[in-house]
Amino acid sequence: MTRQQVLDLYFMDARCKLIELAAFLDRVERSDGEADFRLAAIREALPLLQSVQQDKAKAVLLSLSDPTNEPLLSAPGKGACGAWPGAPL
Amino acid sequence: MRYIEPHAHMVSRTTSDYEAMRLAGCEAVCEPAFWAGFDRSSADGFYDYFCQLTDYEPKRAAKFGLPHFCWLCINPKESEDMVLAREVLALIPGFLERPNVLGIGEIGLNKNTRNELAILEEHIDLAARFNQLILVHTPHLEDKLKGTKLILDLLQADSRIQPGRVIIDHVEEHTVSLVLDAGFWAGITLYPESKATPARAVDMVERAGMQNIWLNCACDWGRSEPLAVPQTALEMRRRGHSAKAVDDLIYGNPLRFLSQSPRFRIE
Ligand SMILES: [Zn+2]
Predict the structure, then answer these.
(1) Which residues of chain B have pLDDT under 50?
(2) What's the pLDDT score for residue B267?
(3) What total of structural domains would you count in chain A?
(4) Which of A50, B117, B131, B142 stands 20 to 30 A from A57 (CA)?
């Protein structure tokens, strides 16, 4: 596909997601109380979108990933939340 | 359009889903053993589940003209309890001769723990001893990268394992190259929120090449879309990919991988 064709196919979808993300940040900022690590994780990932390099999706995924290599001694539950809370205390 | 759905948890789906998949061109459906959304209280629960996967579900699928195949294991979410896991592992050889069983899966990791790794290693050993294909589940979200690396290390440490007979599923942009570069097959799972969307899946295929990749919907009891594979085929056509390229990816590739099992035969 040409760059023009990609824009024709995907611009409106990307625009929609961009505004959703902006509205999410507004919503979370006007709410009361402390944020957990997930908000910081999103803020850290945002500048990656401005990179001129390819692999921006990969960079965002890496920034949200557990970077450690050692298996855990036991499971802290079954679920995953989408961002890494940091090394367990 | 024709396609093979290589990863769907049909026990959690309705007959309308079977009908819709068939109408969309599905020619066969494969169902890995997985977590039920709650922990089973004993190995008996798994015995019954394996009977469901090898006896009842193929009959239900046949009513819609769909050949049904399955994979057997104890999933990583329940592998933290090693006593239970070993009881379930001991049941599996008794089911491997059933006519719709393709191999061991979906094994893998969930929270990347020592116990999960130990049980994964025992599943890999079982697959090697019984010469079975392997389907691997990689962890969710923030745990995927680490889990994928641990899984690759374990598989590569066993000299009996041939990478071409192992599919590592739920890859995303940060893990797809790790899997393919090591010679394994990669599965891209299409989910509404996590894993990959149709657009991202096609991006990955365009960049990594179509060789040794399959697409699947992994539909289950959670938010998921049983028609995600044909929807992604439409996405490819919108981008100008040929009908042949689409057919190669959604029919030819799973056919090529699954046909390594003598039990996978479709008309
Ligand atoms: Zn699954």
Answers:
(1) none
(2) 78
(3) 2
(4) B117
Nearest residue of B to residue A74, measured between CA atoms: B113
Torsion sign, CA atoms B112, B113, B118, B123:
negative
Contacts of B38 (CB under 8 A, 6+ apart): none
A24 and A10 fall within a common domain: yes
pLDDT, tens digit, 9 for 90 and up, residues B130-167: 999 999 999 999 999 999 999 999 999 999 999 999 99
Identify the pLDDT of residue A87: 67
Please answer yes or no on whether A66 and B145 come within 8 Å at the CB atom: yes
Domain that holds residue A28: 1-32
| Domain presence at residue A5 | yes
Same domain, A4 and A16: yes
CB contact under 8 A, A61 and B145: yes
User: pLDDT value at position B193?
Assistant: 85
Which sign, positive or negative, has the C-alpha torsion B24, B69, B210, B75? Answer: positive
Give residue B235's pLDDT. Answer: 97
3-state DSSP call for residue B188?
strand
Domain boundaries, chain B: 3-258
CATH class of B3-258: alpha beta
Q: Which chain A residues are within 8 Å of B202, Cβ to Cβ?
A: none
Look up residue B144 and give its two tokens: 């995927």
Asked if A39 and A58 sit in the same domain, the reply is: yes
**Which residue in B115, B146, B203 is closest to A68 by CB distance?**
B146
Report how far residue A62's alpha carbon sits from residue B4's, in angstroms, rounded to the nearest whole number. Answer: 31
| One domain for residues A43 and A57 | yes
Residue A76 in any domain: the answer is no
Q: What is the pTM of this model?
A: 0.97
A51 plus A61 within the same structural domain? yes
Cross-strand partners of B134: B104, B166
Query: What digits encode the pLDDT tens for the residues B206-219?
Result: 999 999 999 999 99
**Structure ipTM:** 0.95
Are A1 and A15 in the same domain?
yes
* Interface contact A80-B142, CB threshold 8 A: yes
